[in-house]
Amino acid sequence: MIDKFQIEICAGSLSDLLTADAFDEVDRVEFNSALELGGLTPSYGSFLQAREKSKKRIICMVRPRAAGFVYNEDEKNTMFRDAQLFLDAGADGIVFGFLNPDHTVDEETTAKMVSLIHGYGKEAVFHKAFDETPDPFQAAQTLINLGVQRILTSGQKADVIAGIDLLTKLQNAYGSQIEILPGGGVKADNIVALLDTTGCMQFHMSAKETRNDSGSYPAVSADNIRKVLVNLQAALHQENTLTREDQDMLRNDSFENIDWNDEDERP
């Protein structure tokens, strides 16, 4: 029976974070900059304002550049300094990812980052660098062994619907040992199918819309958050009032009617 879901909003600015902050049902915010590049380290000044204004748990991204996740020593040092600044200033966790040149998990650097984060009693989250690993099951086990609390993933596909099979397998295999956080194209018209199919109880979404200011940029939409919450709450009510036979029948029907070609940009 569904009893609690969690929503994480991917915020690319202070404005995005404050939009998410207005919703009691939003559990936490992943704080970034440059969502159009997949999310980079936010400025320290923007984080200080976010921490002063928001009551939510804030997980800070440390990612010094776009493209891949194989970093040189200077880039790694920058990431560790940023992480320590954020943790000292009240971040509730750090989201990061380190890969070796063969795209396996960089265990040594990951272990050091986990140690830093856990030294503050905060959450260590491995982001979508996971989706570039050659063996996701081995990568998940490695991250479990290193003490990472959560993996953000779209199931090694362009979006969560395309990756729903792997998401389900990861949740079934490792969900009791590490949190599997589906993210990438999560929205109102697919979130209930994700909930029912994968068994995951938390979701990462940008809830974005396009805005314009001498050019376009993505921003968190309160209306998109609201639509997701309405659908999830309806699913929760349905699970808690229908018989098990009715629940199974409706799950099967909704699964068969999914538009599997529906795509969204990755947050």
TrEMBL record:
InterPro entries to which the protein is assigned, alphabetical: CutC-like (IPR005627), CutC-like_dom_sf (IPR036822)
GO molecular function: copper ion binding
Cellular component GO terms held in the UniProt record: cytoplasm
Keyword Cytoplasm: yes
KW Cytoplasm (keyword) present: yes
SUPFAM superfamilies to which the protein is assigned, alphabetical: CutC-like
Cell compartment(s), UniProt: Cytoplasm
Family designation: Belongs to the CutC family.
Name listed for the protein in its UniProt record: PF03932 family protein CutC
Provenance organism: Grylomicrobium aquisgranensis
Gene it is expressed from: cutC
